[in-house]
Structure formats: C-alpha cells, structure tokens
Amino acid sequence: MFRCKTAWFSSSVPQACSCFWMLEGGSAAGWREADYLFSADAACPDTVRIFESKDYLWNKVTVFHSLFLSVCERRQSVKSVSIGHYVLPPASVQDEVRNVVGRLIWERQDEQSVAQDSCEGCSPPTEDEDSEEGSRSHSEPSETDSSEREAPLGGHWGNYRSGSMLAGYVSIDNLQKYSGELCDFHPGYVQCSKCKANIYEDNTYESVLCRSQLQTGGNVLTN
Fold first, then answer.
1. Where is the signal peptide, in residue numbers (predicted)?
2. pLDDT tens digit string along 92-123?
3. Reported confidence tier of residue 132, pLDDT bands at 50, 70, 90
C-alpha cells in the first residue's frame, strides 16, 4: 500500500501502526523529509514542535492522525479511506472544529471501538434465555421494535448530519451525477492549490482543517 512512501511517526503513535506501514512497503524518515506525518496526540511534545515550526505555519507540512493507518489495515485498502478526514489540527484548534462538526472522526471511532469491546465482554445468553427471548419476540410483537433497532444508527448519523449542515456540506442527494470515466484518488497525484483557513470568516470544516483545495473541475465521482 505504501511502497516508496516515507513517513514520520510521533512517539504517541502505537507501534502497530508504524509496523503496518513498514510491512506495506513504507519507510521511516525525519519529519522534514517524510511524505506523511502521523501522530495520535496533538499535545504530544514532538507534535507540538511541528505545529510551532515555520514549515507548518507556512503550510508546508500537514499532520495526520495515525488512526488512518488502523483503518487502512482493517479494510486492507488505502484507496477506500479518505486521508483528508484524518488531518490532525493543533489542540487549540480542535475545540473550534468540534463547535462546527461535533466529534472528530477518530473520537467517534474510538467510542465505537469501546462499545464493541464492551459488547464482546458481555457473557452470551444461555439457551433458556434465548428460548425465552425468542418466544417473547414472536408472541409479543412491538410496534417500536424497528425504531429501537434503528435508534443507535439514526442517532449516530443524526449527529453527523447536523454537524454537516452546520459545516455547510451539501447532501449527496443534491450532487450532480458524474457519468464519465471513474478513477481512484491518490494523495499527491492531483493538482493542488494552497488556501488560507479562517474559521471566523468561513464557518466550515474545511476552513479549519484543509490546507489544500483539490481541483477536480467540479465533477462528483459516484459509483
């Protein structure tokens, strides 16, 4: 996945992430020479030094959250994961971002992992309990069953939608369908232009995080 790519890893990054990078053909380098910079904590001293550097202030480097690598490993793909979602801003900026979009993507995924771990830790029901639950579900159908089952998903996406509306995102239903040839997006292989971010002038997620604006000609790629 990362052949011929170099990365710098903060001391806050789990060793499993850096090992995965190496196993997939990537190599390590200093943060000034690396293609990608990964950190798991914006308050980590080595990451703070980068945020305070002239290279960062002049938009020459961008720090990404190391959870990007964990998601790539889980999906066994880098093409299906948008690295732009994992831009790690300084700790002082994160509160401003949360005011716009709510929880950051790695915070939501951390909560999902904790919830999954807690479910896996629960003892499985006995056969008698299974039979009792089955008999109750068949004999006493509830009108709220479907809504209750959808509640966790709806609640999660409800927060996401509300954050998206605050951020000025357009619904996918309102996007124009692109009928041309589809191609995969690879970071570093498209033309980019730098833009200044100002959350007070443009109250969007991109105004806080994005340090480059992709020039795609206005087309939307859909399957």
1. none
2. 887 777 777 667 776 765 544 444 444 445 55
3. low
Burial class from Cβ neighbours inside 10 Å (0-12, 13-18, 19+) for residue 215 reads exposed
- pLDDT above 80: residue 139: no
Q: Which residue has the higher pLDDT, 144 or 90?
A: 90
CA distance 170 to 82: 18
| Strand 6-9, strand 36-39: pairing | parallel
More confident residue, 194 or 86: 86
Query: CA-to-CA distance for 65 and 10, rounded, in angstroms?
Result: 10
pLDDT, tens digit, 9 for 90 and up, residues 78-98: 888 888 888 888 888 877 777
What domains can be seen in the chain, in order of their start residue? 6-112+153-174+187-214 (3.40.50.10190)
